[in-house]
Design brief:
Length: 216
């Protein structure tokens, strides 16, 4: 099962560029996807990662963030559209001030999630959650992941580089090897058109530890 097959028009790969804002992309992305999947928006609307990066005081802007805090922000505060507040932090890696108006000076309108649930209790619970929408998750990046181009990733060599937040969009099996299909936020030219596959059911690099379904 993959949303890339079911509703490809509801998914989009973005590029966080030179800002440690994966946390915002991994939460605002599924929020945008799931509103499209659920029919809350008639077509996919890109919501603003920039607003979350600059305005979510529970997180650290370009210096990282926490999945649970993202979800709380989406539910309590919400985000405007990307066409209102576009992404700017990727250029110089600067968090930026929380905007009080849209880029064009018009009034900001915020859209909130209705809630969220931690769905990482088992492989099966993630699979069930994926039938409802894209799911925010995170994993430990080792240096061998930086050389990923295609195929099913499994950590073999290298040092721990840090944590990285991404998005589950599907799962499958290839030649007897089970995998998750995951969206990254490093642009479409990275990996498999902006996505990667990683070993499923083994909690590879901690990817099955902590994940959230954003309810729209």
């Amino acid at each position: 099962f993959s949303w890339l097959d079911e509703k490809p028009q509801c998914l989009k790969v973005r590029d966080q560029a030179s800002c440690g804002s994966c946390w915002a992309f991994s939460s605002v992305g599924p929020f945008s996807d799931n509103r499209c999947i659920d029919g809350k928006d008639s077509k996919r609307v890109q919501y603003s990662e920039q607003y979350m990066v600059s305005c979510d005081t529970g997180n650290m802007g370009c210096d990282g963030g926490y999945l649970m805090m993202d979800q709380k922000f989406l539910k309590k505060t919400g985000v405007p559209t990307d066409s209102c507040v576009s992404y700017k932090s990727g250029t110089k890696g600067v968090t930026g001030k929380c905007p009080t108006t849209c880029d064009d000076g018009s009034k900001i309108t915020l859209t909130k999630s209705t809630g969220y649930s931690n769905v990482c209790t088992s492989e099966e619970s993630i699979k069930v959650a994926l039938t409802k929408g894209a799911v925010q998750t995170a994993f430990t990046v080792y240096s061998d992941f930086m050389y990923y181009q295609k195929g099913i990733y499994q950590h073999k060599t290298g040092y721990q580089e840090g944590g990285h937040a991404v998005t589950f969009v599907g799962y499958g099996e290839e030649n007897g090897t089970k995998y998750w299909t995951v969206r990254n936020s490093w642009g479409e030219s990275w990996g498999e058109n902006g996505y990667f596959r990683i070993l499923r059911g083994e909690n590879e690099c901690g990817i099955e530890n902590d994940c959230y379904l954003t309810e729209v």
